[in-house]
Amino acid sequence: MNISIPAYQNPVTGIYPLVLKEAKTLLTNPYLPMEAGYALNSDGMYHVAGHTYMKDVTGPMIDWWFGYVTNTDQYKQWHPKDHVFSSWSGPHGNSTYIGGNHLVHEYIGGQLTFLRIQFRDPATYFGENYKALFTAANVSTAVCARVGLWEGAEKGIQALDIGHVIHLVHNEFDGVRMRSRFWLGDMDAVKEPAQRATSIPPDLAPGLTKHTSEEMAILGTFLPDLYKREMAKGPKRRDAVEVLPWSVDDS
């Protein structure tokens, strides 16, 4: 069973939502006061939290998935209702996605949104010693990215950066617990908290709270079998380099 903790009260009140510069707090506090929901933090960013238990899933499976999901059919499997289009620019395959750009169309809060998810090394948010910190916190991986409003295929990968995402994967006895965290409102040209707060569309934070909970619960239902099936195919060759299997081969 894959369980997402629902956000019963949105926006969450009476707490101090996590600010981006304190992301390391996730490693020393396995459960924070806000594990599901959204709220405006002191930096003027909307902090969105999702929390999903994924039975029989492992950290390596999560890394493999983000290096695998490329085309629209794969992307729609992740959320058949909200996901519309997917393409990729940059490194991917064989559990590789850092430095790549996932270019998508998806419905969030009922609005069709074009996004560029630009994947970053976890060191960006957790420091150069993040591997030791992950081991101490029983964390197997963290999928980290800068999120931007994509301007469409005619503009290449150009986007207006508006936020950040961290999917932190905790090991559990028969699966993993994914803590998804977003910070919305971090734009290079906007520094004042009050301006940040008003720059984000009003439906984005509540819509993202619902969407991320749903898509991660769905992912947990098919990822173990998909991973096993793809890995059983044996190595493929792409650009004269042997890599682990993945379903899209553009070579």
TrEMBL record:
Domain DAPG hydrolase PhiG: 20-228
Zinc found in the keyword field: yes
Keyword Zinc: yes
Any one GO MF annotation of this record: hydrolase activity
Annotated keywords: Hydrolase, Metal-binding, Zinc
Cofactor: Zn(2+)
Family annotation (Pfam families): DAPG_hydrolase
Protein name, UniProt field: DAPG hydrolase PhiG domain-containing protein
Protein species of origin: Venturia nashicola
Biological classification of the source: Eukaryota, Fungi, Dikarya, Ascomycota, Pezizomycotina
